[in-house]
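Q: Structure tokens for this one, please.
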Amino acid sequence: MNAVLALPIIAPLVGAALTIMFRHSILQRIISFTALSISLISAIIITVDVSRDTDIAVSRLGGWPANIAITLVADRLAAMLLLISVSLLVIVLCFAIGQGARDEHSPIYHPVYLVLAAGISQAFLAGDLFNLFVAFELMLMASYVLLTLDGTDKQIKSGVTYVVLNVLKSLLLLTAVGLIFAATGTVSMSELPELLAALPVGVRTGLNLLLLVAFGIKAAVFPLYFWLPDSYPSAPSSVTAVFAGLLTKVGVYGIIRTETLLFPGNQANLLLWVAAFTMVVGVIGALAQSQMKRILSFHIISQIGYIVMGVALGTKAALAATVFYLMHHIPVKASLFLVEGIVERETGETEFDKVGGLARRSGFFALLFMIPALSLAGIPPFSGFLAKYSLLRAGFDGDQWLIIGIAIAVSLLTLISMTKIWIGLFWGEIMPPVPAERVGILRHHQLMTLSSAVLIAGTLGVAFMANPLYEFCVGAAEQLINPMMYVKAVRGS
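A: Here is the predicted structure, written as tokens:
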């Protein structure tokens, strides 16, 4: 298991180096799929291993002593996020190839994509704060290149905003890591819970807030969200799908670790207010838009609010619901951006006043949009309903009536905004007239449609297998709510 834990990081990095050496597009595709396939097999093995009882997989690279080793740790939360992330990266790569965009044909696309994959894997597996920071930097460098790969004025402008805010996040995170090391003498997440608890209350609170702000920028929570709606829509849809599905979730993962392992429950009230405002601001922003990609970008923000709500509630039931919500939300949000990519590829537009009648062009394509849209809004029997119901039930148990009311209202407004996309793009008259060579999504863009369908099938699988998956999430919550399980697993290895 020690070697397997490192493979999701090492395989993409080796693949990135090889794709730089071999710049032919077909060779790059083969190398990318091979590297990501190795990562996927490794993620499956890790997830199966940690699913047994309360197992937590630990690896110290190079066999060095614990106090100086680079430690990789996979509990149930990390393993689940790793498996979903690598699976999504494989599917989106298929979509990008089918899209036939010039981005994927660029000789730097595959190396950068693989570096991004390595950074995401490292973030979920990092056993210390410094290597978590390194993972964030890998993701920042790779995501900026992917965001501006076309080199258009719009992309460069959005990319500048993106990189400035993320550099600020990096500065805050590095400052927090440095101060934590100065205060405790370590950055190991297995040693910090005990040492941080011994610090004066003011110092502990300051360090906690510094980490929350850094991770909050990455997660795009209120009031640190404003960079996202302008940055993500300018990227190609395949890139935005990865960003929407994974990058904000890495920030959420940092918040979960901060509030369950390092500073358990210290900022619960603050996070409840952050969750409420994040939900409301995101959904209001979505309702004000008239372009599909911008609506979906604002919904990234509003849905993060639900996840932060579960972290703030902090009970075992709430954390289990939070993990299940992540399991539902990542494929649902990414699949909506893939569907948006097909619309843009077919019509060249996603503005409501320029496109219409898509449901009559392809009923199957309309179904591809409808399933994740209804799931995002929380309509039964889809996975979104089960995830939101679990969160609301945890809120009822804690008598948090205000946040429950806000969550229900935001869910209804989400349904309205999804209906707005349906009426604007999929209903009404067919406009503009589509050239014969571009009609028939399934006939001309099989790989794009197949990739989207596979991902959407995964969202249905979450609903159909909700009971065993939720039991897995309960086990993950058990590990999160008992930090000593993490500490003992790492120290005892």
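A few notes: Strands lie at 57-60, 71-74. Residues 2-492 form one domain.
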